[in-house]
Amino acid sequence: MEEPHPSTKPVVLLADNEDVIRNLMARFLEYKGHSVRCAADGHEALELSRNHLDEIDLVVIDLDMPGLNGMELCAHLAKERPCTKVVIISGDTEKKSTFRFCTSHSV
User: Can you give the residue ranges of every domain in the chain?
Assistant: First the structure.
């Protein structure tokens, strides 16, 4: 099977502060044919987003990160890249912040 040309691979910006989760998701996305830019926190993700404006097709962010959290990062991305699709992930279904975010954004 032939691999897609590197320039035709969709680019995903992946932000998660947990190394194991981030690395596993990155490997899976690469296996599925995506090019992945990884960030360990919201600040790094925002910097990568700004440095790769024309490259990123999709952003996947963890809702609960220290520093610039997923909600704050999502707000920045909505202003700076309004057409870019964002997928928000969270492993903690008990947190009120997850519920508050989902209900306020019609998720």
Answer: 6-104
The three-point CA angle 28-32-34 to 5° equals: 95
Pairing of strands 85-89, 35-39: unpaired
SS3 34: coil
Task: Say which CATH class 6-104 falls into.
Answer: alpha beta
Are 103 and 76 in contact, with CB atoms under 8 Å apart? no
**In this predicted model, what pLDDT tens digit does every residue of 37-52 receive, in sequence order?**
999 999 999 999 999 9
CA angle, 87 then 92 then 98, to 5°: 60
